[in-house]
Amino acid sequence: MKQQETFSQDEQSGKWWQQAVVYQIYPRSFQDSDGDGIGDLQGIISRLDYLKKLGITAIWLSPVYKSPNDDNGYDISDYQGIMDEFGTMADMDELIEKAAAADIRLIMDLVVNHTSDEHRWFIEAASSPDNPYRDYYIWRDPVEGEEPNGLRSIFSGSAWGLDESSGQYYLHLFSKKQPDLNWENQQVRKEIYDMMNFWLGKGIGGFRMDVIDLIGKQPDLELTANGPKLHDYLQEMNQASFGSYDVMTVGETWGATPEIAKLYSNPARHELSMVFQFEHVTLDQQEGKEKWDLQPLSIRQLKEVLSKWQTSLGNQGWNSLFWNNHDLPRIISRWGNDQQYREKSGKLFAILLHMMKGTPYVYQGEEIGMTNRPVKAIEEVEDIESINMYHERLAAGFPIEEIMTSINTKGRDNARTPMQWDDSETGGFTTGTPWLPVNDNYHEVNVKQALADPNSIFYTYQQLIQLRKENPLIVWGEYELLDTADTIFAYYRKYHGEKWLVVANMSEESQTLELKDKVKDQIISNNDSLTVEAGNVLLQAYDAFVVRV
Ligand code: NOJ
């Protein structure tokens, strides 16, 4: 029977996560409390007041489970244990409790496409082809003495790792130390649902599901994303675990189109709350190539893509809004200007995104305008993805300068440098030696400075988050793109007769916007000297504002 359930479009019957603003914590780099140079759970607890002040209502916590850290926690060796460097289960319980007391829900990262090769299941599985755990992973015989097929790892090289003792290959779509789980095995699925229930029982606010679009893969067909059973698995997971809780679930879904997004997030289908899709952040890579193959961003395309996502889900799907995360470069360095216009362009990106429909995510440090940290040589790089790509491209004959430009533009370490809290040594992140150097600009760019300056980016974020809490128009309103010059991004939001206009000059040139609407009042802007009235509005570099019209 076809169910009629769709999303409601108002605050009375809406879900909490449609009205939430999520803050992503990359725990390794957030706040160290014990001087080992690595952030930890007590560090996070000590900063809850700061997050409360910012106004966010949920935290997406990148993985804190036991892990040998081949991929900084995205290689899990025990889903029900806490990484030693981060603390203990008692610390975790304390964090959940104290966050709840501050009305902040804790969203755990759920990494179940793969485990670490040091997970008990894989150790068993690799011990013998007859081991009962063998089928928890994906094994194939060699073909003519070689890898079973041409599947490539997202971290470079073949996706097939040789297990010398049996002569078979196992699948790893990420690093060799991240073997893929076999989702076709019912026992694997049950173990995962049980583990999820363990965490749900602790009162967490939900899950962010790492590369969840890959779990339905068909390796023999070299098909990885959006496999035929993906949505069956998610429906089964929903029923077996979080479906009976009031939690939020967000799927990391790289290749989702709006139609695919509806499969995941249409409430009638009982899968996930929302998608986290990446179409806009792939626009500065050459089509059909890898993220390292750079091309300039076309603002016109950015407007098209973001607007398409604003209008195409209707009440049958829900989307996330973000510029940054721990896998992406810092937005100000990427598409703004991290020198002369660091604060101005930072505020512009904040205003543009936080006025859209969807659930916004703020990545730690974004709210104080943190920037990329450039490196000179590969020895300074920690991230396995960049390191593997470097060696692969070097062997393929790419010039070193070109490879280093790619790493400095797109490498993941850019956004993983420690949080800058104040201007003391290491930016107040640790009393020891930070695992990854702090960006040199911590003397000027830090939380202490931002809190002391009423005009800082921090207060723009704080104001935007507050506006979302107070104005259903931002959460539920209709979206309409205005037809303007290419580098002006302007749109309306409309709700029950109320209409707001959002305008952003995405360039360093001054330009004029012809404004037909009568302006009722100004809501927020990144330029205090700007008065917006009907007629010709002169926009300076990176000017952005919101007015009620
Ligand atoms: C996506 C995560 O965000 C990324 O950091 C990780 O390397 C891969 N999935 C593999 O887990």
UniProtKB/TrEMBL annotation:
SMART domains: Aamy
Keyword terms, alphabetized: Glycosidase, Hydrolase
Recorded superkingdom: Bacteria
Protein's UniProt keywords contain NAD: no
Domain Glycosyl hydrolase family 13 catalytic per the UniProt entry, residue ranges: 24-416
Family, similarity comment: Belongs to the glycosyl hydrolase 13 family.
Protein name: Alpha-glucosidase
Source organism (scientific name): Enterococcus larvae
